Structure formats: C-alpha cells, structure tokens
C-alpha cells in the first residue's frame, strides 16, 4: 500500500547531534596523553675510563670517526648504537656498516676500567680483521698523588 503525503502536512524536523561535549572530552584526553607521555632518551653506556699517567690528546680531524664503547658488563656500542649481541661477528658487522668499508678512518676504543679483558681484546680483534690501522684507546689523566 502506498500512502500519500498530505500537501499541507507538518515539515520534517531536522536531526542534529550536539558535538560540543564530545570535543571537550577529546581535548581532555589529548591533554592527559600529552602530560603523561614520557620521552625516552637513548641509553648510553656509562663508562668510567681507566687512568694513565702519560698520553696525548687526540688530534681533531674532519674525517668521520668511529668509536667502540665497551661497558663494564662487556656490552658494545658502535657510535652510540648498542649491539643486541656482544660477539665478534656482530661487532664486525656494525663496524663495517658504520665505516661503509673505509678502514682508513680513525677508530677509538673506549672501555670501562672494569671491562673484562676479553671484551677489549675482541674489539681490537674485530678492528684488526677489518684492516683498521688508526686505533686509539681512551683514558683519563691520572691524578697526582698528594
């Protein structure tokens, strides 16, 4: 059955949604997330360098420099990028990637004073296998005895 509308009938009422309270809630949630967000800083190894009575400060070069940092627990970082696995193969891969195959770049090894000797030897072995010849070992100047 088909019903006809009356010509002079009541006009349809337009349906609207009031979005004001929804927008208020969204802004409160946004403010909450901004305030409670923590910005993570990349973790870097905290290294206490060993002391040395003699030595020379490094010369400044314009070449790209490589740095291997070794933490007290034997964890490696290459140019502040931590390695997931601390072994010879991953260290060599990271050095190759950072140096882009250029083994004439200066390589600095910074090891904590309490680093196991094996971790330091592994770093030097990786550098030697890749052909790096310009190696530096960082230390801090020994304090004079009173």
Compact overview of the structure:
The protein is an alpha/beta fold and 146 residues long. The protein has helices at residues 20-36, 88-99, 117-130, and strands at residues 51-52, 66-70, 76-78, 81-82, 107-111, 135-137, 140-141. A hairpin with a 5-residue loop joins strand 2 (66-70) and strand 3 (76-78).
Protein traits:
146 residues; Nucleotidyltransferase, domain 5; five-stranded mixed beta sheet; 7 strands; two-stranded parallel sheet; alpha/beta
Write the layout of secondary structure elements.
Elements: H1 20-36, E1 51-52, E2 66-70, E3 76-78, E4 81-82, H2 88-99, E5 107-111, H3 117-130, E6 135-137, E7 140-141
Parallel strand pairs: 1-7, 2-5, 5-6
Antiparallel strand pairs: 2-3, 3-4
Major sheet description: 5 strands, mixed
Question: How many DSSP helices?
Answer: 3
Shape: elongated
Helix content: 25-40%
CATH topology name of the domain at 51-141, in short, is Nucleotidyltransferase, domain 5
Largest beta sheet: what is the strand line-up? 4-3-2-5-6
- Uncertain regions spanning at least 5 consecutive residues: none
Quaternary state reads: single chain
% residues in beta strands: 15-25%
Descriptive notes:
Helices cover 29% and strands 15% of the residues. With 146 residues, the chain is of the alpha/beta class. The chain has a domain at 51-141: Nucleotidyltransferase, domain 5 (2-Layer Sandwich), CATH 3.30.420. A 5-stranded mixed sheet has the order 4-3-2-5-6, covered by helices on one side. A two-stranded parallel ribbon has the order 1-7. A hairpin with a 2-residue loop joins β3 (76-78) and β4 (81-82). The protein is elongated. The N and C termini lie far apart (111 Å).
């Amino acid at each position: 059955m088909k019903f006809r509308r009356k010509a002079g009938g009541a006009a349809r009422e337009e349906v609207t949604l009031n979005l004001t309270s929804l927008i208020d809630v969204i802004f409160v949630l946004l403010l909450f997330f901004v305030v409670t967000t923590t910005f993570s800083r990349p973790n870097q190894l905290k290294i206490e360098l060993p002391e040395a009575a003699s030595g020379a400060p490094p010369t400044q070069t314009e070449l790209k420099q490589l740095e291997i940092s070794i933490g007290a627990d034997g964890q490696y970082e290459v140019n502040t990028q931590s390695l997931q696995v601390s072994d010879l193969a991953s260290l060599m891969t990271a050095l190759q990637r950072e140096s882009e195959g250029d083994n004439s770049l200066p390589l600095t090894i910074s090891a904590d004073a309490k680093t196991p000797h094996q971790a330091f030897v592994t770093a030097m072995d990786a550098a030697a296998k890749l052909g790096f010849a310009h190696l530096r070992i960082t230390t801090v100047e020994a304090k004079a005895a009173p």
